[in-house]
Structures
1.
Amino acid sequence: MDFLPADINAYAEAHTSPETDVLSQLSRNTRAHVMAPRMLSGHLQGRFLSMIAHMIRPRRILEIGTYTGYSALCLAEGLTDDGRLITIDHNEELESFARSYWQRSPLANQIELRIGSAADVIPALDETFDLVFIDADKRNNALYYDLVFDKLRPGGIILADNVLWSGKVVNPVKPADQDTAAVLAFNQKIQDDPRVENVLLPLRDGIMMIRKF
């Protein structure tokens, strides 16, 4: 997942605004106590998510894939005072872990967790979103994109994570495994979509930044 040399990555983090204490504790305890800690957004990507949210000043954010709640806190930093972030995850086992850190933040009341399948939850949302972060199972990236597109305001932003898929997009095993094939198909789908402008950023495991016309 880390494409840059370790010293370059360390330099980048050293010249990036620090995490809050709550985020630092959340990161540390995720790595110590939760399976698959590489799923955590982490310092550099977290500050990027926060920066984008501050630039947009969204009233409504949708996050697909909560994990331990780190990225939700980062995104929520940029919400308007009356804003709300809805985050969806199918894994209820990490709910209390995530909530315990949200409660240590002044943003807790602006974060709403929906437990369930995103494919079922999204169609039931009666909201118009300013910012969407897709960071869940890669095989359904295209489905989530299609489900949220009409709920995103014109000019709104979709961020999709892991679009470089540990470098497999440029050096896939043949035949490609299902996850790699799904990421490749999603990236091409976005590239070919005339309704959007997109930039693939080689940040961490790759973020596709998409602006709806």
2.
Amino acid sequence: MANHYASSLLRTLRNRISIDTVIVDMLRLDVRPDDTLLRFRCPLCDRFHTATNPKTNLARCFDCEKNFNPIDMVIAVTHCSFVDAVERLKNRSHWMG
């Protein structure tokens, strides 16, 4: 595993792998979809006062006031290191749009 990643790779992982795909398909979090938003159980506070924003590719917990990009979400859910999260997402690169 690499200890240093090109900023272009990190930008690609953060922006081109859908946060909804990471939440639903990769991490299989408990979700409550409604008509317009994907609500998920926050990995930090365990509440559903959350939403994802496809325009920014971020997930947000309004109770914790925490934003998650795909890398942050993998770290929060799996309790892995940054390097491990990047490697896990790289292995799922076929999800990039």
3.
Amino acid sequence: MTTFLIGTDGAETSEALVPYARERIGPDDTAYAVNSLYGGDQTSDEEIAAGEAALEVLEEAIGAEPHQLVRGNSPQVDIIEFARDHDVDEIIIGIRKRSPTGKMLFGSTAQDLLLETDRPVVTIPLATPD
């Protein structure tokens, strides 16, 4: 039995992760879907609703147990802590192609997660807007 954490930031990301998750996650495995929001003044009602919609996609498509985290942490901190707390074997996330300047100005949750976690991480390329 393997335990998976699927990190998502929106319904489109969730939909892009479903095909891999369907192939990889077996009936005896456990899957958690995680969406992380900072909370307080930094999170709108629309962002909370979008996070819930993203989790719903994974819950309905693969039976992932949904977790909306609003703890004042960055997404990579929430994912790392959740993975540790739930003894996750593999983390699945989506990545977007970004320019070096975009990475420098806006940071990269995926990059930070890859550098900070001690768990295997599968990255699924996401479509990028033209």
4.
Amino acid sequence: MNARVTQLAIHEALCGLFGPDLVKSEWSVRTDATDKVFDRSTYAPRLDIAVGPFNVTRERKHDDLASIDDYGRHPFIRWLRTEVERQNHGGFYLNPNPRCLLAIELEYSTSSKHILGGITNASLLGAIGVIVGPAAYIAKIQRIAQYAARLRQIEKAHDDMFANIACFPEDEFLRLLAPRR
């Protein structure tokens, strides 16, 4: 599959889990933002897929964060958090001020810098970040994520650095999202 086909399939599956109002493709962190964190002069990432609730207002920040926390009880999110802990050797960092519940980046580039940028955006913007890649690149994606985990283990990086992300091959992530019959 190519990135666009994968993005559409993941988007559709997540809409089945969370409803179409909470799932956005190509979501800019500026969308509906009133907190002005990302003005036009500041870099503002665009996530491949974002799942809300969204935290984009200063005046509703506490309500938005409470909504994100409530959705953290969703069975899929609870399972995903367990997977993040497994991939991070038992660690999990709770992002205290995410822009969204789930930040998903699709990595179809072999560039380590692009992969690291995707990991950074998913980690900083989501309560949980997910990196999805094709079978041809997933080993490299996982090695880069494990690099950060190793730096945390030997105390060369903060305990929270990328400790809220999990990496999946595209086919595995799509299977996880498939409805159970």
